[in-house]
Amino acid sequence: MEHLPDEPITLRMPAGIWAGIDAGIDNVVSLAAEDGDEDAVRVGESIRKAGWNQVPWVEGNWPPLDQVIAIRLTRSQWRFAADDARESIPVHERLDDAKSAQLCRDALALIETVL
Length: 115
Description:
By secondary structure, the chain is of the alpha+beta class. The chain has one domain (8-112). It has helices at 15-35, 38-54, 75-94, 98-112, and strands at residues 8-14, 68-74. The protein has a two-stranded antiparallel sheet with strand order 1-2. Helix 3 (75-94) packs antiparallel against helix 4. The model has no long low-confidence stretch (mean pLDDT 94).
């Protein structure tokens, strides 16, 4: 079966995993902007905006990190997020940030179920 890059896919996850994905993509966008990579900025911003529109905000704040939420992105957006998580794991490990490394592993494992 052929997978289309613009195929929308909804993933359910704890809000904490999405918060980690969002933070990672924020870093990607910042670095891409510095490097002049307009495509990465565009894709990253589209991912973050989609997430902001779908997160069930609680009085303007993130929901509890253990609350399960549903985020719908295109297959190519999920692939972009997976690539960031994969590349971030060794960075967090070098910085002895085991919690962030595990969050990236959890996000990657979840996203890879649909790629």
